[in-house]
Amino acid sequence: MRARRLLAPVLAGLLLLLTYFLVEGATPDAVLHERTLGALRQLMLDEAALQRDVLRARAGLLRNYDPLVSSLESMREAGEQLRTADHVASGSTQIEIKRRIEATIAAVHDQENLVETFKSGNAVLRNSLNYFGYVLGQASTPGGSPREPPAEEIAAVANALLRLMQEPQDDAAVGLMTALGRLERSPTSGEQRPTVEALLTHGRLVVATLPQVDDLVARSQAAPIRDRAGSLQDMYLDLYGRAAARAGMFRILLYSVAVALAAYVGYLFLRLRANARSLQERLTLEKTIAEISAQFIHLPRARIDEGIQDGLARLARHTGADAACIVVLGDAATSVKDSRLWLRPGVRMPAPRPEDMLMVAERWSVEGYERQGCVHVPEIQSLPDGPEKSQLQALGIRSWLCIPIGLAGRWSGFLTLDTISSAKRWSDDDIALLRTAGEIFTNAIERERSEAERQALEARVHQGERLEAIGTLAGGVAHEFNNILGAILGYCEIGLESLKQPSAPRRHMQQIMKAGKRAQGIVDQILTFSRRGDREYRPIEATPVVAEALDLLRASLPATLSIRSHFAVEGVRLLGNATELQQVVMNLCTNAAQAMDGRGAIDVSLDSVESPDERSLSHGDLPPGRYIRLAVTDAGPGMEPVVMERIFEPFFTTKRPGRGTGLGLATVHGIVTQHGGTMNVISHQGAGSTFEAYFPQTDEVAREDARVEATAPLGHGETILLVDDETPLVMVGEEMLASLGYEPVGFQKSTAALAAFHADPHRFDLVLTDEIMPDMTGTELATALHQVRPDLPIVLVTGHIGPVRSSGLEAVGIREVLKKPLLSNPLANCLAKHLRAK
Amino acid sequence: MRVLHTQRSQRRTVRLALAGCIASLVCPAAAGSLAESVDNEPIMPVTQAAELAPAKIALGRKMFHDVRLSRDDKVSCAGCHDLSRGGADHRAQSVGSDGRPLDFNASTVFNAGLNARLNWRGNFRTLEEQNEAVLLDPRLMNSTWPELLAKLRADTEYQATFKALYGGGPERERVLDALVTFQRSLVTPDARFDRYLRGERDAITAEEARGYQLFKAYGCIACHQGINIGGNLFQKFGVFHDPFAQRGTTRAADLGRYTVTGNESDRHVFRVPSLRNVTITAPYFHDGSAGSLHEAVAVMARSQLGRELPQQDVDLIVRFLGTLTGAYQGRSLDARSDRESR
User: pLDDT: is A23 or B210 the higher one?
Assistant: First the structure.
């Protein structure tokens, strides 16, 4: 718009300038010039002719005045023509040349007046002289009059006239007058009187006229016409020369402007052509980019990678680049998430590390190479020395273009195009288009990545669902098996009591007992793995718990194995269960020991990590927050991805049959998940594995009783009614209670227990009953007991994991529900709590 | 001075006879015989006018005879310059538009273009100036350019002719150009004397030749010379004898050129008129005061030459003057006059 507003004045100015040059460059009018020169020449010629003719007329050689008239006429015309001679001058010189012209014309005018007077005077003079000639001719004629008296006087007059004609001096004139006087006084015959009279008149006229005419002749000869015309001519020619030189200069200027304009037109033409060509190139580049873009739209995920390579190749080939690299940055834009490189076949260059490229691009500090937010180095050689130059030179490239690609205002990656064989200068339009192309690539890469993430997520969800299904199934089965095992082991124990002597049946019974114990261990583990939700966690300090577990482990491991502990944190707490935490440590270390075939060192580290963003780990997502990370690293052979995927499934094992149950890691997973944590496994084949357990960190202060937990609270001989339909469990329970300082009274039948209660209701301080029993369930029993003694605390023990309606439980006096198998610590705490409450 | 030097050599050759010597000295032409060569005559024959456009001549002729060029369509140029009557009106003084006589006798329009100056007082140098002055002079045609041009433009024939010749309608310059072109064509070649000058010895009679010799010998030739036999210089009327003295009163017109220049030396000075066709353009002099040629020649001899000519010499000179009548459009002006007078 501004350019257009400028255009009109510029054009007008140019036109004015050209017009000025044209006007000034015009040679002083050639016709006028010729005319002026001709007039001057004519004037001088005519003047010469006129002066000659005046002399001839005076001498009587010219007998008509036509030549004088025509010369004067011609001079007058020439004088008029001279009036235009001032066209060669301007200003003061023009005034001067005008003055000279006027002077010349005035001289012509004066000359004309002189000549007019001369003609009249000369005519009279000639007439008189003519008459003298006639009279004297008559007198000298032989046949004429004889010498009569006035003849002497006439001769004297003729003599005096001759003298006057010869030397027109005053004394000659006086002489003629004297002669005329004598003639007048001489006696004359009447016949001759008119002749004498005429002679006298003409003679006196000659005396009067001759000096006048001669004076006119002299004056006309001395007329200043030639001088004035000469000086006018000098001045005119000088001025004309100057005007012509000036005009020549302006013509050269005009020519220069014309040449400049022609050059400008040529330049415009070339630029137009260059523009058209670059437009054409841009169009084809745009087309190529559009094709690349279209290609990506319908490309299946599996072929996106291929498509990116192909697209880069096309882009680079089209633009003449030797190498093209696309780098996708991580969320924080400081790390490289992905990159693709295309090299022209036959081009050799050290593959650039995307991280290095990022460094160069991010820390670019050389001024003058940034265009449209890109870094463009047409010739690396010309860069000032510095890290940028050395880093780029290390790649062996000649020119470098780095286009950052921003999605939503921040860098998401960049595209670099390098040339190796020759320097290359990119146009701004190209860069803009290439940025679009770069965005297409990063979008494609992002798409590929998100596709991959989605698939991984799907796999994990699938895995989780399977784990849960297996857990539920396994939990149900394990519960049933647990009860059966209780019976088997109980009866086995009883049987062994009765078979004191060594015998084959006793040995058999012992084997049954052994196998049963092992089965019970497995069932326990399954139950641990499948335990869900209803556990109560407290804030516990992680470091001492883990340290205790490691101490236990060290004692049980062979000497060939060592455990190196790295505790980077002190006093960090998690909401959890110390026993379960120890179980996690033990299981992971056992797994590690087995992975290393019992040799080498296991690294156990404990630290605190802050995860600002949600992170995706190998076996689950980690919501943002602070975590205590327990990491166990082995130097084993590592795992294949397929193995890693299923590593936490129950019964999945890579060990030889009999060496493991396949429940250890499943239990770990169960516990960690229960704690709201996530597992992460890093494994490289041949380079060992690291199992990381992330537990949410808590700021809750560990409660006082949590300390007590470490040493179970002991009873003071309170009587506990223990009811379980499975004898071994009754036995185990009695033993446990006894060791905790209580007085257990066990019954296998609920009815028997109720009977004992009715016998003495106040004998018991607390009731511990199994729920599922053949005659009367734990709940039914509790109802009956509650009716008699509402204050009596009743604790329900169940091996089943199904939900129990707590309101119903409280109505019948059940204070707490404990899970089988009974463990001494929870039991001690439970009992202590309810007895104290009482 | 130098004139005299050149003449000195001639003087030596004729020293024997003093009178002869003087005669040859003061008038070399007179020193020769009467039958001298015509090559060095002071009078030159008139030639046909230069190439002029016939169409313009025709247009000029038409306007020359057109009364519309004057106010109220009273008079045309030809009113005073009747081509059939020697190009003049034969009055002592023409009658002006106001009905009173004008100051001067109308000169013939024939050969007017050959004159160096125009009119009696020589107050015009060109025919254009003179024509325009006549058209606009209140006492002559008394017109104005707007009036005159309007009349011409109203005439479709004029319009067409001007358009054809000048590429446009009547304008001042075009009107004058056409008129002047026509007047330039009014030359009268082939006078018998011209033929004589060209070598036709028998074109004039011996008496007429004798008249010519007298014309030269008496000194008439001093003023009446050149191609137009006059018309190329001024001379005082009354060099030796004042012709106005006996009249008693002097009119302004008699002052001649003095009324134009105001110079005392120009008192009674007039342009010397041409003598071509003089026989048929009576009366003579600026005021038409001489009714016949004989009278005019006698007055001239007396006032200009200081001589009383014998009657037979006057006759011979008048006979010579008769040979100066030329032809227009191939026919002698004599014949025209004769026919007119009959």
Answer: B210
| ipTM for the assembly | 0.86
Better-scored residue on pLDDT, A130 or B78: B78
CA A618, CA A678: separation in Å to the nearest integer? 9
Chain B CB contacts of A165 under 8 Å are: 4, 7, 25-26
pLDDT exceeds cutoff 90 at B148: yes
Residue A697, both tokens:
């960190």
- With 0-12 / 13-18 / 19 or more C-beta atoms within 10 angstroms meaning exposed / middle / buried, residue B245 is exposed
Please name the member of A58, A127, A155 whose beta carbon is closest to the beta carbon of B3. Answer: A58
CA distance linking residue A638 with residue A787, whole number of Å = 62
For testing the chain A interface, which of B1, B3, B5, B213 should be mutated: the one with the most A CBs within 10 Å? B3
Residues on chain A touching B227 (C-beta within 8 angstroms):
64, 66
Q: Which residues does B238 contact at the CB level (< 8 Å), separation at least 6?
A: B244, B268, B303, B304
The full DSSP string for A492-527 is: HHHHHHH--S--HHHHHHHHHHHHHHHHHHHHHHHH
Q: What residues in chain A have per-residue pLDDT under 70?
A: 1-2, 139-149, 331-334, 352, 406-410, 529-536, 656-661, 702-712, 799-807, 821, 837-838
Contact A493, A728 (CB under 8 A): yes
**Tokens at A12, concatenated:** 């007008």
Strand bridging mode A600-611 / A719-723: unpaired
State mean pLDDT over B20-24: 46
Helix (H) or strand (E) holding A364: none
Chain A residues whose beta carbon lies within 8 Å of the beta carbon of residue B234: 116, 119-120
- Cis bond upstream, residue A821 (ω within 30): yes
Question: In B, which residues are within 8 Å of A167 by CB distance?
Answer: 4
Contact B22 A132 (CB under 8 A): yes
Task: Quote the CA–CA distance of B175 and A13 in Å, as a whole number.
Answer: 47
CB neighbour class for B4 (10 Å; exposed up to 12, middle 13-18, buried from 19): middle
Whether B108 contacts B284, CB under 8 Å? no
Contact B3 A55 (CB under 8 A): yes
Average pLDDT over residues B285-297: 92
Place of tokens 């936490």: A648
How many Å apart are CA B303 and CA B237, to the nearest integer?
7
Residue B342 has what pLDDT? 37
Percent helix, strand and coil across chain B, each to the nearest 5: 50, 5, 45
Yes or no, beta carbons of B30 and A133 under 8 Å apart: yes
CB A599 within 8 A of CB A639: no
> Exposed, middle or buried by CB within 10 Å (0-12, 13-18, 19+), for A560?
exposed
H/E stretch holding A41 reads helix A30-59
Distances (CA, A) of A527 to A480, A520, A542, A768, A816: 11, 10, 24, 21, 20
Q: By C-alpha distance, which of A645, A609, A612 is closest to A630? A: A609
What is the value of pTM for the model shown?
0.55
Of A76, A80, A96, the closest CA to residue A88 belongs to A96
Q: Above 60 in pLDDT, residue B38?
A: no
A427-436, B34-43, B86-95: the lowest-pLDDT one: B34-43
Q: What is the mean pLDDT of the segment spanning B297-301?
A: 93
B254: tokens are 């008699």
Report which of residues B93 and A190 the model is more confident about: B93
* Nearest chain A CA: its distance from B123 CA (Å): 13
> Cα distance from A212 to chain B (closest Cα, Å)?
13
**Taking CA A458 as the corner, what is the angle to CA A456 and CA A464, rounded to the nearest 5 degrees?**
105
Q: Is B25 in contact with A162 (Cβ distance < 8 A)?
A: yes
